[in-house]
Inverse folding.
């Protein structure tokens, strides 16, 4: 099972110190956070894509390429790549290049983005969100699998005899996850292609996660990619830890109370009860996270949101240390012990290359 | 046959004249329903919106209702007949009442008969039922009963008292007549149970994949 962190790349004023990081500080901090995650043995670091303030995450593949050069083992992913407003030809080229530069140490997660004003900046309309996700990915899927593509759709210029370069590393396209909180169409899309499905699993009650994951699993089986419990599921999660759980609550409360996403709304206690947010000791985080399996089944990837709401870099790095030292080793052991042998790990470039080799060697 | 009669009342004070009117409408509606036959039973569920004031604000910010508010919204969705009573604030239904209604899932009230009622400090606001409540519930696809009930201070024990009794009885009779019949209530489509197959999504997206 893979464990890691994901970020949206927000610039938020620290409510305790009043300090607002510059864009430069925040971008460099993302690199440092990824380096630390690599050092403590996390498997994945995922970067967001946003095109409006207060975010600095407009060019994820640039950041990812730089991070890849500064890290050794950690896999780079996205949370999410905007499949609606980004030209699928550019996605094929940018992530195709990244795949070569990283020797396959990457994958990507596609999402629609939920901010209405962003769409017109790229000539799109949020009301076409699902249609854009379906059409654009259908094209991206072909660009990575067919050397010459002739294509026509509704939302971009037709392509005549187009070849997306570079061609995928070892002829194996990057693994794709599809992320959605509430749209059954996206779970259906992930199932149709046999791709991964990721539920953000923060800010919302677990019931939403259960419904979406169940749908994805049953449709994955329907489309003949394997049994429902072999589908590739990823979950988000949000934690803040201190060895003393009361200190964790005390330290995190001002950030919670002022965070743009939930500030002025429910209490921290309500949010902890109603959503997967866990603020407490590493043991509490371990117990809660193991419970995700009760409604999502045996899953392949767990990403935690740690750097947001104005938390200072030093604190975020401490959180990563706690995750790497006290939480992930236990979770890895426990989850691995619970998972039946026929449930696969999340695909990596190496496993995809091996699977293709096995397929080619099999008698027709 | 058991009908669920849900009463949404949005008064803020205790005792509340809005709640007083809501209770009278609930009683009269229940009686009118039971008069339809010996086999008719009525389950009355009362939603006191004030009890959910903070969760309503939280739900607007987070996008999901929690705890008792979630049950209250389910009571509204499951109603065979609905009674709504809002106080009149600044010439319209109260903000808290509207915020609660804003959390009702789209489509769940389509075809539900609803008795529209309001209270106010002065007779001059009596058209609030017609100008504010009726268009709101028309938007939601609910079937508003013809008689709206408005009660001002003078209607409680004053000259208007007898007329109010009459209006309550008439509106309750109309609500009972529309319950369990009238406009068909379409079954709610469970988008998780009946997923649109991907080939259809692809086709909708135009020539994608061709």
């Amino acid at each position: 099972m893979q464990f890691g962190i994901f970020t949206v790349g927000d610039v938020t004023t620290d409510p305790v110190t009043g300090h607002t990081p510059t864009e430069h500080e925040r971008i460099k901090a993302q690199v440092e956070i990824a380096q630390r995650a690599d050092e403590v043995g996390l498997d994945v670091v995922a970067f967001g894509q946003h095109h409006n303030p207060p975010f600095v995450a407009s060019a994820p593949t640039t950041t990812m390429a730089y991070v890849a050069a500064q890290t050794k083992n950690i896999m780079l992913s996205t949370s999410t790549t905007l499949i609606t407003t980004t030209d699928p030809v550019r996605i094929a080229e940018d992530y195709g290049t990244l795949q070569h530069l990283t020797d396959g140490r990457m994958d990507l997660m596609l999402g629609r983005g939920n901010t209405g004003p962003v769409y017109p900046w790229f000539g799109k309309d949020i009301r076409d969100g699902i249609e854009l996700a379906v059409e654009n990915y259908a094209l991206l899927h072909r660009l990575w699998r067919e050397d010459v593509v002739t294509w026509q759709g509704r939302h971009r210029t037709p392509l005549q005899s187009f070849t997306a370069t570079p061609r995928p590393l070892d002829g194996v396209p990057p693994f794709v996850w599809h992320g959605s909180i509430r749209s059954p169409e996206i779970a259906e899309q992930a199932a149709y292609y046999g791709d991964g499905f990721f539920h953000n699993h923060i800010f919302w009650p677990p019931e939403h996660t259960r419904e979406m994951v169940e749908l994805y699993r049953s449709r994955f089986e329907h489309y003949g990619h394997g049994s429902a419990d072999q589908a590739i599921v990823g979950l988000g999660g949000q934690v803040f830890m201190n060895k003393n759980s009361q200190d964790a609550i005390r330290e995190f409360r001002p950030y919670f109370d002022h965070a743009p996403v939930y500030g002025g709304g429910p209490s921290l206690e309500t949010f902890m009860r109603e959503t997967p947010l866990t603020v407490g000791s590493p043991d509490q985080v371990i117990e809660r996270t193991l419970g995700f399996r009760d409604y999502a089944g045996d899953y392949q990837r767990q990403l935690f949101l740690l750097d947001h709401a104005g938390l200072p870099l030093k604190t975020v790095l401490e959180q990563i240390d706690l995750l790497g030292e006290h939480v992930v080793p236990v979770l890895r052991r426990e989850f691995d012990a619970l998972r039946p042998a026929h449930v696969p790990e999340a695909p990596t470039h190496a496993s995809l290359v091996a699977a293709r080799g096995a397929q080619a060697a099999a008698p027709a | 046959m058991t009908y669920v009669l849900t009463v949404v009342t949005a008064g803020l004070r205790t005792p509340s004249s809005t709640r007083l009117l809501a209770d009278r409408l609930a009683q009269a509606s229940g009686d009118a329903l039971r008069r339809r036959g010996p086999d008719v039973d009525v389950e009355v569920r009362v939603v006191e919106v004030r009890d959910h004031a903070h969760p309503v604000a939280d739900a607007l910010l987070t996008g999901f209702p929690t705890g008792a508010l979630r049950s209250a919204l389910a009571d509204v969705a499951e109603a065979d007949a609905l009674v709504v009573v809002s106080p009149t604030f600044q010439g319209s239904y109260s903000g808290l009442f509207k915020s609660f209604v804003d959390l009702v899932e789209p489509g769940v009230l389509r075809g539900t008969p609803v008795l529209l009622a309001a209270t106010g400090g002065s007779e001059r606001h009596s058209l609030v039922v017609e100008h504010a409540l009726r268009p709101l519930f028309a938007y939601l696809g609910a079937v508003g009963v013809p008689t709206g009930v408005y009660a001002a201070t003078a209607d409680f024990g004053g000259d208007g008292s007898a007329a109010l009794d009459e209006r309550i009885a008439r509106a309750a009779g109309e609500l009972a007549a529309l319950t369990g019949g009238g406009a068909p209530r379409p079954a709610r489509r469970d988008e998780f149970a009946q997923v649109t197959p991907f080939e259809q999504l692809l086709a909708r997206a135009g020539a994608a994949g061709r």
